[in-house]
Amino acid sequence: QWQLVESGGDLVQPGGSLRLSCTASGFILDSYAIGWFRQAPGKAREGVSAISSSGSSTDYANSVKGRFTISRDDAKNTVYLQMNSLKPEDTAVYFCAAHYSTSFYADLVESNYDYWGRGTQVTVSS
């Protein structure tokens, strides 16, 4: 069974850091582009960051540029989202998603993504 599982969410103070992980089971991630999306209470889901299947291209929402870094370790079938300088407005459920892609470019087009994890909660609060 194909599955994406997120982990690493937690309660953290403003200015703190977290690293989220997205691990695949049942399929190999190295041919898939991966995206991180988030949904805050009462808000629509939004794209946060994406990485191409080769890892050569990344994309970030303007709100997280310079603070978040996406990376992938295909040997571990895992993609990471390093989040630094966290703000209360980063509070949300974070989802990872995957779609098969041979494109050089990463993308944050939600409708392109076929496989979704169940999410991990990130809360930034003092």
- Radius of gyration, in Å, reads 13 Å
SSE-based structural type: mainly beta
Helical run tally: 0
In whole angstroms, the N-to-C terminal distance is: 39 Å
Task: Tell me the overall shape.
Answer: globular
Biggest sheet details? 7 strands, mixed
> What is the overall pLDDT average?
96
> Percentage of helical residues?
under 10%
Please give the number of β-strands: 11
N-to-C SSE series? EEEEEEEEEEE
Low-confidence stretches: none
Determine the strand fraction and express it as a percent band: over 45%
Question: Layout of SSEs?
Answer:
Layout: E1 3-7, E2 11-12, E3 18-25, E4 32-39, E5 46-51, E6 58-60, E7 68-73, E8 78-83, E9 92-100, E10 115-116, E11 120-124
Parallel strand pairs: 2-11
Antiparallel strand pairs: 1-3, 3-8, 4-5, 4-9, 5-6, 7-8, 9-10, 9-11
Q: Can you describe what's shown?
A:
The chain is mainly beta and 126 residues long. 0% of the residues lie in helices and 48% in strands. The chain is built from no helices and eleven strands. Strands 2, 4, 5, 6, 9, 10 and 11 form a seven-stranded mixed β-sheet that branches. Strands 1-3-8-7 form a four-stranded antiparallel β-sheet, with no helix packed on it. Strand 7 and strand 8 form a beta hairpin. The mean pLDDT is 96.
